[in-house]
Structure formats: structure tokens, C-alpha cells
Hints:
The protein is an all-alpha fold. It has 17 helices and no strands. The radius of gyration is 19 Å and the shape is globular. It is 75% helix and 0% strand.
Amino acid sequence: MTPSSLPYNPALDGLRALSILVVIAFHCFVPGFGGGHLGVDLFFVLSGYLITALLAAEIRHGGIAVGRFYMRRLMRLYPPLLALVLAYLLLAPWLFPNEPRWLMAGLTLTYVMDYAIAFNVLPPTLGVTWSLGVEEKFYLLWPLLLPALLRARRPMLWLLGAFVAVTAWRYAVAWQWGWGQAYFRFDTRVTGIVLGAIAALRPTVMPRWLVLVACASLLINLVMPSLPFHWQFPGATWRVTAAELAAFVLVSHAAAHPTGTWLSSPPLAWLGRLSYGLFLWHFAAISALGRSHSPWVLLGASLTFSLVMAAVCHYLIERPVGRWSRRRFGPLNPSSKVLSP
């Protein structure tokens, strides 16, 4: 195992596939998926787990090459995002004539959409990329903070304290300034990423009963109706926290059982490898169609379009760029491909 690689885990890709399908169904207003925003929380926990495991392996092999890490992340995430933004700029004058397309493109490509959408009413076409802003800030900070954390006497205690503190901060923001600010910002949503880091640094074999409880919790959260934007506490606080804790259990379980479960089935793992592209392209299709269609029409059209575009991006952009990046900056394990919704 090289410092910048880890054994591939298809079960984690299976979790990623389920997460993006839930998010797409939620955005299409499919009945029974009113809590589908929990897919974002699962993505964040996965990101925290995968990147922390990758960086911890580098530390064990002599230290983090921060510049190389940044370039690997940039080469992994930026080319498909740039393809989406270029397509948006070309088509927006006809499909979205009333949107401030240059502003939206700039906010997306600089990864500040999380704060922009928290403080402003912006069109959702590219606004859905707010979660990329949350993760990108984590990628920038974590390689600098993790070595110091691991030198501390009780790193797990520090991480648990950070989770509790940021969760309390999210509650306070929701109470004082409303649901939107509490839900979208890096400083209020980093809790799931912190739980993922804990899962990576302290691997735990979850008992079967706890995995079943986590699945039941996510299912209940999923089928609950969407909450009004003005309803401050429920959506931005306890539902997010419940989803994060359940995701922590499932990610830990998948990490301990990479094969032999239905999550690691080849079709699901393949879909998980396309999930970044699915996330990037699905909402553009929904926005172009409009909300006048039935949820099932939106779901079928957005899934078909985003799957085609995700496959095109994966095989014609991500793979060639990935091969060049591995030659230039060292190997990057497939299971460290982090999806952001």
C-alpha cells in the first residue's frame, strides 16, 4: 500500500450510490422522499472518513505532501465541475435567461456557494453545489490540522468536542438567524465530516442491532415530509444530527465489511463511481424541465440525463485526467473519490 492509496472498498461506493439516488428523488419531489436531504449528511460523513483515512496513511508513511494532496483533489474534482459550468454558461441565455449566470458560475468555481446561498436568495440551478463549498474548505484545512491533532494526547476527545460544539453552534444559528443559514454553511455543517474523521481514526465494528437501528432511523427520517424553510429548529438541527449519527454507523459498518454485502454489488458500486457526475448534472435537468411536471417525469428525465452526462464525464474527462494526475502527483485510490451533494 502506497502512502497515498488505500484498498478499494466497493461497499463505500454502494453507500454513495444510495445517497445520490435519495438526493435526486428528494429534488424531484418523489413521494416518500421528503427527508431525502439526509443523503447530503451521508456524503459528508463519507468525505470525512475517506480523506482522513487517506491522510492518516500518508502520515504513517512519513508525512502529508500538502501541495500534492491539493493538486490531486483539484484534478479529481475540478474538471467535471468546469464542464458543468461551461455548459451552463453556454445554455443559460436560452434555458435560464433570468439567472445571473456569471455570478453563479463565479460562486461555484470559487467554492463559496455555501455562504452565498445561506445569505442570499439565489437560483438553485448551480446553487445545489453549495455542498462542494463545504467539502472544499475541509480539503483545504484538514491536511494542515490533522498532523497537529494526531500529536495531541487525546485526539478523539478533541474531535468529539468539535462535533458537540459545532452541533450546538448550528442550533444557535438556526434559532437566531433561521434555517437557511444553519443548513448551508461550512461552519454549521462540518459536523458530519468530523464524524467521518472519527470513523477513520478509530475504526469500530458496529453490532448488527446498531446497524439495524441506524437503517431504521434513516428510513424514518427519509419518509418524513419536507420541513418548511421558515421552520427553524427541526430541519437544521435534530434531523441533521440524527442523519449524521446514523450515517456514522453505516460508514463504519461498510468500512469493516468492504465485500460480501449487497452494498458491494458491482452495479451499485459502478453507480457509486459515477455519483459525483450524477450530483453535478441532475439538478440542471430538473431546472430546465421546470416544476410543472410530475415527480416521476422529473425523476426519469433527470436520472437519464445525469447518468449519460456522468458516464461521459467519467470516461472522457475524469479517467484521462486521473491517469495524468497519478503520473504527476502520485496514486489516488478509487475509494477516495469523494462525492458532494
